[in-house]
Amino acid sequence: MAKKQWGWIQATSVDRISYLPDGILHQILSYLHIKVVARTSVLSKRWQHLWYSFPVFDFAQYEFYDPRKRMDDLETFTDIVDGKLKSFCKYEHAIQRFNLQFSCIEPEYYCLVDK
């Protein structure tokens, strides 16, 4: 345990946030953008579990859009949403919030919606 002294304040590098219950951490994470929440999964196995069990789904296709590779972006987007839903189902939690923004104009992309 590393300690640093700044005047009269003593700081200790202890990870206390990881010891909070999942429900409290989910509540804290619900105030963050979904991409930021996903990035926390690389911190440790504990945080990876939190991402997989995170009950808030807020996906917008435009955040994955690149006009040069339209079909690839749609497939990537649907793969991410599908993977998140599949991993979440293993935890048998209720979804707290679900938002999916997806526009699919050309008929050739309809198969991605059903996927």
Automatic annotation (TrEMBL):
Domain of life of the source: Eukaryota
Classification via SUPFAM superfamilies: F-box domain
Transmembrane residue ranges: none
Pfam families: F-box (PF00646)
The F-box domain, residue ranges: 14-50
InterPro entries listed in its UniProt record: F-box-like_dom_sf (IPR036047), F-box_AtFBL13-like (IPR053781), F-box_dom (IPR001810), FBL60-like (IPR055294)
Protein name: F-box domain-containing protein
